[in-house]
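Below is a filled-in request sheet from our internal design queue. Each sheet records the structural input a requester submitted and the sequence that came back. We keep these sheets so that new team members can see what a complete request looks like end to end.

REQUESTER: design group, bay 2
PRIORITY: normal
MODE: inverse folding
CHAIN LENGTH: 319
BACKBONE (tokenized):
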């Protein structure tokens, strides 16, 4: 008969010698970073943030960096197993020339700094996982876009191309590189849904342009599960569209949101010139169409918990 007390004590001592893998996240305080942090902790990973602030989520170790001064604490890298690069200024803003530089530098220069430090600091990092965006493809119209589709020629496509180049150079250090071209992230805490919900409280459903442009979307829980899978699966390498299998038009997205919320609404067209006046180049991005396929990540064995838009919205916004 097993002595439970002895077994538990032995198990505890064994666990003390089993070191959890460490995941270092840039941009950890953002919408995706916080959700991903909680999921990683639940899975038993030690999570650290590389951040400008000294505050973080509960249980997270903070390493303060200064990208402008090209400073990263060496200890942030020495014991890290996986790096997840989410840092980047929001693109949902007025694109002045100065803000465009910020969008680029917050993604590319920060990745370059980590790369430069990793070349000189002894480390055991196995995997570098980077965000990117489906803006890589530019306006794809009605065409299905897989990971081999060419890059677009607008500013956001340029950002994504340079973002991915900055990530891919980690292969030179024999690190496994995974890049997620992320679609429209559906979450109740931020992103696309809250401003649309707010407008519907006043009975208005804004339709950007003609509303027929495709929006490839993903539930935030599925996105976090993709990052977790990228850590666990050594077969995952290269670029993946981080989207649900069923892209919809923007008008369908807005109408489904209204249906789930049970709100009376008037579809209010927002013409291109008005979007450009309010948001500059970002206004053009809202009118772009990306109909992305998710076949590649599916071949890795990934299964979505939220592949249907109606059920995804119901999960996020229960009545």
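RETURNED SEQUENCE:
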């Amino acid at each position: 008969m097993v002595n439970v007390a002895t077994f538990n004590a032995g198990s505890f001592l064994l666990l003390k010698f089993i070191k959890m893998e460490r995941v270092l996240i840039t941009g950890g305080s953002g919408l995706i970073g916080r959700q991903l942090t909680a999921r990683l902790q639940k899975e038993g990973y030690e999570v650290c943030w590389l951040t400008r602030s000294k505050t973080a989520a509960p249980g997270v170790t903070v390493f303060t960096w200064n990208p402008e001064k090209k400073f990263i604490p060496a200890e942030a890298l020495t014991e890290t197993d996986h790096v997840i690069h989410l840092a980047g200024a929001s693109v949902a803003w007025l694109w002045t020339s100065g803000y465009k530089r910020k969008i680029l530098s917050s993604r590319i220069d920060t990745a370059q700094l980590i790369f430069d430090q990793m070349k000189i600091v002894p480390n055991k990092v196995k995997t570098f996982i980077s965000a990117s965006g489906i803006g890589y493809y530019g306006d794809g119209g009605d065409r299905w876009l897989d990971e081999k589709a060419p890059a677009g020629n607008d500013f956001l496509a340029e950002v994504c191309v340079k973002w991915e180049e900055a990530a891919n150079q980690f292969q030179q250090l024999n690190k496994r590189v995974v890049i997620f071209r992320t679609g429209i992230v559906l979450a109740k805490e931020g992103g696309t849904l809250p401003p649309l919900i707010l407008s519907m409280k006043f009975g208005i459903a804004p339709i950007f342009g003609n509303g027929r442009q495709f929006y490839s979307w993903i539930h935030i829980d599925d996105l976090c599960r993709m990052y977790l899978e990228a850590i666990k699966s050594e077969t995952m390498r290269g670029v993946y569209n981080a989207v649900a299998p069923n892209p919809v038009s923007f008008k369908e997205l807005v109408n489904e949101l209204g249906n789930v919320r049970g709100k009376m609404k008037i579809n209010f067209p927002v013409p291109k010139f008005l979007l450009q006046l309010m948001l500059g180049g970002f206004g053009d991005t809202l009118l772009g169409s990306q109909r992305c396929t998710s076949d590649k990540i599916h071949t890795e064995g990934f299964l979505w918990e939220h592949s249907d838009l109606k059920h995804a919205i119901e999960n996020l916004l229960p009545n």
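SHEET NOTES:
- The longest strand covers residues 127-133.
- The chain has twelve helices and 15 strands.
FILED BY: M.R.
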